[in-house]
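Hey, weird one. I pasted the Histone-fold-containing protein sequence into the form twice and got a warning about non-standard characters only the second time. First submission, copied straight from the form history:
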Amino acid sequence: RPGTVALREIRRFQASTALLIPKGPFQRLVREITSLFKLGARFRPNAMDIIQEAAEAHLVEIFGYSNAETAHAKRKTLQSKDLVLAYKLRG
């Protein structure tokens, strides 16, 4: 049936407490962004873990709000306008 595999994946990820974004690409992104500010910033290994934990928690929160807005609009498909509204309302 359509969507069965997707629902199974969603349940598996919701039950997991592991970080979902791979560490390597995330660290490269953080270092690239901080290099734009030319601060010469250096990170301890646990600081990068904390930044990643906070970033993933923020994404989960925004997607949760966006999902609620999708349901309020009586749709089943998340659209970009739902994410935009979630950011505008909750910053």
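That's the output from the first submission. The warning seems to come from a hidden character in my clipboard, not from the data itself. DSSP finds four helices and no strands in the chain.
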